Amino acid sequence: VRPQAGMFIMMDVSRVCNDGAVFASGLLAEQKVSVIPGAGFGEIAAPYVRLSLTHTLDVLDKAMNRIEAYV
């Protein structure tokens, strides 16, 4: 059986940065958290980044704390 949906969220970062790619690059460099720039999903998604929810709750909690520290 093939899944009907992915386990991810699209996070709007436009209040911090209008370019999801710039946000993703800075987040990786400063906090070692990897997200996918939204522009790969179309121009309308450029101010978003995609976060995978396929990790353990412990890993997700640490990642969210690092994202919060970054913004």
Radius of gyration: 12 Å
**Strands side by side in the biggest sheet:** 1-3-2
What is the arithmetic mean of pLDDT? Answer: 92
User: How would you characterize the largest beta sheet?
Assistant: 3 strands, antiparallel
Run of helices and strands: EHEEH
What features would you describe in this structure?
The protein is of the alpha+beta class. The chain has helices at residues 20-31, 57-70, and strands at residues 8-12, 36-37, 48-52. The chain has a three-stranded antiparallel β-sheet with strand order 1-3-2, with helices on one face. Helix 1 (20-31) packs across helix 2. The longest helix is centred in the C-terminal third of the chain and has 14 residues, at 57-70. The radius of gyration is 12 Å and the shape is flat. The termini are far apart. The mean pLDDT is 92.
List keywords for this structure.
alpha+beta, 2 helices, 71 residues, three-stranded antiparallel sheet
Topology, please?
Layout: E1 8-12, H1 20-31, E2 36-37, E3 48-52, H2 57-70
Antiparallel strand pairs: 1-3, 2-3
Quick summary:
The protein has 2 helices and 3 strands.
